[in-house]
TrEMBL record:
<dbReference type="GO" id="GO:0003676">
    <property type="term" value="F:nucleic acid binding"/>
</dbReference>
<dbReference type="GO" id="GO:0008270">
    <property type="term" value="F:zinc ion binding"/>
</dbReference>
<keyword id="KW-0255">Endonuclease</keyword>
<keyword id="KW-0378">Hydrolase</keyword>
<dbReference type="GO" id="GO:0004519">
    <property type="term" value="F:endonuclease activity"/>
</dbReference>
<keyword id="KW-0540">Nuclease</keyword>
<dbReference type="InterPro" id="IPR003615">
    <property type="entry name" value="HNH_nuc"/>
</dbReference>
<dbReference type="InterPro" id="IPR002711">
    <property type="entry name" value="HNH"/>
</dbReference>
<dbReference type="Pfam" id="PF01844">
    <property type="entry name" value="HNH"/>
</dbReference>
<protein>
    <submittedName>
        <fullName>HNH endonuclease</fullName>
    </submittedName>
</protein>
<feature type="domain" description="HNH nuclease">
    <location>
        <begin position="52"/>
        <end position="103"/>
    </location>
</feature>
Amino acid sequence: MYRCPDCYSDFLMRVEPCPGCIDQANRKARAKKAKERRHSYDPNGQIEDWEFWDLLRWYRTCPCCGKNWSAVEMIARDHIVPVSRGGPNEAKNLQPLCQPCNLWKSDRIIYFDRHFAGRCAPLPEYLLPYLRAAAPGVHEQTTFLEAAPLDLRLRYPEATARQLEEITLHLSTAQELDY
């Protein structure tokens, strides 16, 4: 039995480089990258608590799953157009979601209708300029026509996050073309 003197991982034989040390280095590198990414967000566009709570009063329930806020353990500040995809870190780009729905949505561009839980809605007008940067090629209608037929009636529990993102993008580009 071989024990690495640096990470104290046990192996049947001596291996160079040690897989345990490599895993530790990878975890540290990912954590450092995530920390840098968090600190790179625009500090001038930080959202105040009162702005989020003011926004929350317009939503009776979680717009994704429909749970009442009193039954939700934690309310997450979800960016409609994710910051990682070029969206602004401002209150106008937020929608409140329960924590499980926020994790399910991940970094997708999904705007939920606040009146009908689980149903997608077109992006608000002020977010349409960010759509070009976040999803290049969306404005070419051929991408939607060549893809599998899109059922615009799909809702949260039955649809995947990718399907709901496609519906949101489709509704948003159709809305933008009307203007």
